[in-house]
Fold:
Amino acid sequence: MDEHLAEGAVFIDVGAHVGVYSVLAAKRVGSQGKVFAIEPQSVGIAAIEISAALNGFTHLHAILGAVGKTAGLIPLDLESFGAAVVDQSRARENSTLVQCLALDDLATQNSLAKIHLLKLDAGGNEAEVLLGAKELLRSRQLQAIVMKLYHPDVIHQRFGKTTWDAIAWLHSHEYTTDAVFHGKVLGLQAVEDLSKIFSDGSYCHILIARPA
Structure:
């Protein structure tokens, strides 16, 4: 935030929870900036809306829903881990349908020429979110990403995918990827690098991506 968010900047918070980062960003970018806090659980959206009202942040926009490759309704499993499920076959009996949006569409609908910082925590479904940001990545409108990097076993169990899917997609659009773990920084160049950062069985780390 110190590096990328100044007065008038745009911040998108995917997986905003109760909006801690969104509120901090709203204060930093000021009334000329824009903050979009996207969260699929209504209790989180309610908290964000209360915080925005108490602080007078009319430029903080809370959006109830999930983020993915395309717009539409998708099932959300709230019981196990609160992340959107990508297909009907993985939905549980107690799943609820939520609206899904794509970041490319969000940018177009709100005339966002630049997104200065994206905070991304989709519960392991980050690759699907980034697939919906194809144009933003291609055009370099997306200037920086701070993403939760889950252990490969977590992503495979939840979505049947790999941690490397999101990283490979970023590389294909000429973004650099650096993992931050235990106070160290490692540039992720190949899938084998993941074994280095998760060798101690850590649940998650942080990924930072920028245009090369």
Notes: The chain is about 30% helix and 30% strand.
